[in-house]
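Researcher: Quick test of sequence recovery. Tokens follow.
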């Protein structure tokens, strides 16, 4: 793709984003230039500077904060916007999160993890490390950081398992914290999670390892019983190698 074409596409994306914001504001009955008026009151540095360079920087304020019908009433504190619904855009993630242990048992909302939403940046190559940092804001990290997986992630190894590789990200299920209550689901899930990486020949070769562990486990009594559908009755990978400090 030539340079001129790339520049044209970028300009088109920016222009289209602007059209979308203006159209949305018009549909809500809001005056043009509403973003500047929002920031005249909401002048925290998160909104006045960091938001423009964030991952949501091309979205206007009213893309997320909907339901304001009378700007004057809102500015006088008489009208509040509707609660932010991230699922309006992130529909697949919202469907996953409705099955999430954190949502069902702890009543978490998106903002409990994404508290810096107005200045959120793309994680890019640092995704795995970003997951560790976010999860360990609540969960202790001593055992995981001391493990082979944790140490490798901290060194920048993108093959090594981070929290979401074993527990899921937006779809963390209840059996992750209730092994005794859901032994079949938990043992079956974790064994499959281990095998997903350790049975990947190319990944293992990149890291000086072998897939022999998976093959030999499948030939044991434990592996055979698990494979025919009874993982709760035999030992899985985590029973031998523990959960976090592997």
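Model:
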């Amino acid at each position: 793709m030539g340079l001129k074409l790339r520049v044209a596409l970028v300009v088109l994306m920016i222009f289209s984003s602007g059209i979308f914001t203006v159209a949305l504001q018009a549909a809500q009955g809001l005056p043009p230039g509403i973003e500047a008026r929002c920031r005249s009151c909401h002048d925290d540095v998160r909104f006045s500077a960091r938001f423009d360079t964030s991952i949501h920087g091309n979205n206007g304020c009213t893309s997320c904060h909907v339901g304001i019908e009378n700007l004057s009433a809102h500015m006088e504190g008489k009208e509040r916007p509707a609660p932010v619904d991230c699922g309006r855009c992130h529909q697949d993630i919202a469907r996953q999160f409705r099955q999430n242990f954190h949502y069902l048992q702890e009543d978490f909302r998106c903002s409990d993890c994404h508290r810096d939403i107005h200045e959120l940046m793309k994680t890019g190559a640092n995704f795995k490390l970003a997951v560790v940092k976010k999860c360990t804001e609540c969960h202790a990290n001593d055992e995981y950081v001391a493990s082979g997986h944790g140490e490798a992630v901290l060194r920048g190894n993108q093959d090594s398992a981070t929290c979401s590789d074993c527990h899921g990200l937006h779809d963390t299920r209840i059996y992750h914290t209730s092994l005794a209550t859901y032994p079949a689901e938990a043992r079956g899930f974790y064994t499959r999670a281990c095998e997903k990486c350790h049975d990947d020949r190319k990944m293992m070769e990149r890291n000086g390892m072998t897939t022999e562990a998976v093959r030999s486990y499948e030939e044991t009594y434990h592996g055979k019983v698990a494979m025919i559908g009874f993982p709760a009755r035999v030992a899985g990978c985590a029973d031998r190698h523990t959960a976090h400090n592997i």
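The first helix runs from residue 3 to 27.
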